[in-house]
Amino acid sequence: MERACFDDMESSIHTKLKPVSIPMVVEEKTREIIALRVCSMPAKGVLAEKSRKKYGPRKDERREARLEVLRTLGRVAAPGLVVTSDKCPHYPALIKLALPDAKHVVVKGRRGCVAGQGELKKIGFDPLFSFNHTAAMARANVNRLIRKTWCISKRTDRLQDHWDLYKWFHNHYLLKNPANKKPPGKVPRLKLLAE
User: Fold this and answer.
1) In angstroms, rounded to a whole number, what is the distance separating the alpha carbons of residues 128 and 113?
2) Which of 36, 102, 130, 177 has the most CB atoms lying inside 10 A of its own CB?
């Protein structure tokens, strides 16, 4: 692997007052999910005060989770790795620490459109297309990630388990079928879980 996209997705546990971050690395060419980790983060914006009042201060585990994801990338990356990310001020130092030989390309993040629920962009060329498209596919395929839903995770470890199953399904099933070819019947769910 020579090029990868790195960014965070956000979701919540039990209530929007308990947000979680999902740092993820996606291979740019194939859109394969290399690594991801679900971690706790404090609420921000208008929900921050309500969250602190009702649930107390939330632990911020984003730094450790991002480092773990980047170190996993380092174990499978080829020499000359190029990592593309948005302008988050925390990324450069972490990428330098975890991947000292990688080149880090910073691009301007752009607002998403409603149809893509924040990941797909209303622009011609998106340098983070691989990440944004993969994140949009995850939101469409994993019911716990849909923003307006009744199905919400109650525990961070259970959301991580669901993500691990989806990662396997995404990498070994969705990406292996050509876009114009229909899958051969139903997906054998018990076989997926057993492998």
Assistant:
1) 15
2) 36
More confident of the two residues 8 and 123: 8
User: What Å distances lie between residue 58 and 20, 23, 53, 130, CA to CA?
Assistant: 10, 18, 11, 31
What residue has token string 């995850």?
Answer: 138
What beta strand segments (E) does 2-155 contain?
3-13, 15-27, 33-36, 39-40, 82-85, 103-106
Number of domains, the chain:
1
What per-residue confidence (pLDDT) applies to 190? 45
Can you read off the two tokens belonging to residue 41?
């983060």
Q: What average pLDDT is seen over the chain?
A: 84
What are the E-state strand segments in 28-67?
Answer: 33-36, 39-40
Give the domain extent around 86. Answer: 3-194
The Cα 55–Cα 49 span in angstroms is 10
CATH value at residue 28: 3.30.420
